[in-house]
C-alpha cells in the first residue's frame, strides 16, 4: 500500500506540473483526481488498521464496521476533492474564463506515463477481485454488489475511474489542439467530474448498506437454516436474523422451537453443540445466539411476517 501511495503521489505531482504548463482544464481535473486518490490511499490504510483491532469491553463485537466508515470517507473525498474541482474547471473553461492552452506536449507525456502505471494497478485490482469472486463462487458483478470487503472494490473503482479519466483528459487536450476550441477541454473536465461523481455514489451506496447492517450472504443464511432444522432437538426454525458487522464477520440470531420432551439441560447442550457446528462450518460466523420460542406465539409470527412477508416453510422432515 505504501508503494501505491508513493506512485499516486508522484502521478499527482506530475499532473499538477503538466496542468500548470499546459493550462488545460482537463489536465487540472486529472491532477485533482490524483490528489484525491493519494488522500484515499491514506484513508484506506487507516481503515484497515483500525478495523482490525480486537473486541473489548466497550466494543464487544469488535471494530470491523470502522472499515466501512473510512471507505465511505473515500467516496466523500472523491466527490469533494475530485469531482467538484473538475466541474469547476470545466464550467470556467466553457464560459470562457480560462486562459488559453499552451503547448500540450507535457500533458500528453504525463498522461501516457500515468496510463501505463494505472493500467498495471488496475490489472492487479481486477485479478484480486476476480480471485475473491471465484473463491465465493459468484460472478464478479454479484460479488461486487454483495461483498462485505469494500477496500478491494474501492481500489478497483478508483483505478477504473483513473483510466477512463486519463482517456477523457487526452481527448480534451487533443480535440482542443485540433480544433482550437477550448470547449472540448472544458467538456473533458466536466465529464471527468461526472465520472468521479458516479464512482463516489457507487462507493457510498455500498458502504451505506454495510453500515446500516446488511443480511449475510443468502447462501449462508439458507445453510444455517438447513443445519438448525436438521438438528434432532429442533422441531421448527421460527426465525433467523443475520447481520454483517465487519469483513467476514457475521452475527447469527435464531429463534428455535425445541421439542417439548427435552429437558432444560438437553436444550442447553443442544445450543452449545449447534453454536460450535455453525462456527466450524462457516468461519465467518463470529457470534451465535439461539433463543427457545414457541412456534405458535402470535406476536413472534407477526414480527416475522412484518420483516419477511411470510413464515418460513417447515423443514422436510416436519412436513
TrEMBL record:
The keyword DNA repair does not apply. InterPro entries: Cation_efflux, Cation_efflux_CTD_sf, Cation_efflux_TM, Cation_efflux_TMD_sf, SLC30A9. Its main location: membrane. It is a multi-pass membrane protein. Keywords: Membrane, Signal, Transmembrane, Transmembrane helix, Transport. It is found in: Membrane. Gene3D superfamilies: Cation efflux protein transmembrane domain. It comes from the Bacteria. It holds the Pfam family Cation_efflux. The chain crosses the membrane at residues 68-88, 108-126, 161-178, 190-212. Residues 2-211 form the Cation efflux protein transmembrane domain. Residues 1-31 form the signal peptide. This is Cation diffusion facilitator family transporter.
Amino acid at each position: 500500500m505504501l508503494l501505491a501511495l508513493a506512485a499516486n503521489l508522484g502521478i499527482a505531482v506530475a499532473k499538477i506540473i503538466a496542468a500548470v504548463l499546459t493550462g488545460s482544464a482537463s489536465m487540472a481535473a486529472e491532477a485533482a483526481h490524483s490528489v484525491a486518490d493519494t488522500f484515499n490511499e491514506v484513508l484506506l490504510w487507516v481503515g484497515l488498521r483500525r478495523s482490525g483491532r480486537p473486541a473489548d469491553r466497550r466494543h464487544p463485537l469488535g471494530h470491523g464496521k470502522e472499515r466501512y466508515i473510512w471507505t465511505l470517507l473515500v467516496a466523500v473525498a472523491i466527490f469533494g476533492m475530485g469531482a467538484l474541482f473538475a466541474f469547476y474547471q470545466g464550467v470556467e473553461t466553457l464560459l470562457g474564463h480560462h486562459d488559453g492552452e499552451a503547448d500540450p506536449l507535457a500533458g500528453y507525456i504525463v498522461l501516457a506515463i500515468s496510463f501505463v502505471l494505472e493500467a498495471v494497478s488496475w490489472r492487479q485490482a481486477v485479478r484480486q477481485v476476480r480471485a475473491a469472486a471465484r473463491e465465493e463462487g459468484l460472478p464478479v458483478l454479484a460479488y461486487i454488489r454483495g461483498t462485505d470487503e469494500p477496500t478491494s472494490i474501492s481500489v478497483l473503482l478508483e483505478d477504473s475511474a483513473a483510466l477512463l479519466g486519463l482517456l477523457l483528459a487526452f481527448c480534451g487536450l487533443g480535440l482542443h489542439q485540433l480544433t482550437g476550441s477550448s470547449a472540448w477541454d472544458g467538456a473533458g473536465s466536466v465529464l471527468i467530474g461526472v465520472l468521479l461523481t458516479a464512482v463516489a455514489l457507487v462507493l457510498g451506496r455500498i458502504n451505506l448498506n454495510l453500515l446500516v447492517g446488511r443480511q449475510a450472504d443468502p447462501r449462508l443464511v439458507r445453510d444455517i437454516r438447513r443445519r438448525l432444522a436438521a438438528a434432532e432437538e429442533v422441531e421448527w426454525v421460527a426465525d433467523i436474523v443475520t447481520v454483517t458487522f465487519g469483513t467476514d464477520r457475521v452475527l447469527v440470531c435464531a429463534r428455535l422451537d425445541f421439542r417439548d420432551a427435552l429437558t432444560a439441560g438437553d436444550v442447553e447442550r443442544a445450543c452449545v453443540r449447534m453454536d460450535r457446528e455453525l462456527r466450524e462450518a462457516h468461519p465467518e460466523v463470529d457470534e451465535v445466539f439461539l433463543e427457545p420460542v414457541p412456534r405458535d406465539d402470535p406476536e413472534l409470527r407477526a414480527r416475522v411476517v412484518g420483516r419477511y412477508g411470510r413464515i418460513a416453510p417447515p423443514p422436510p422432515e416436519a412436513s
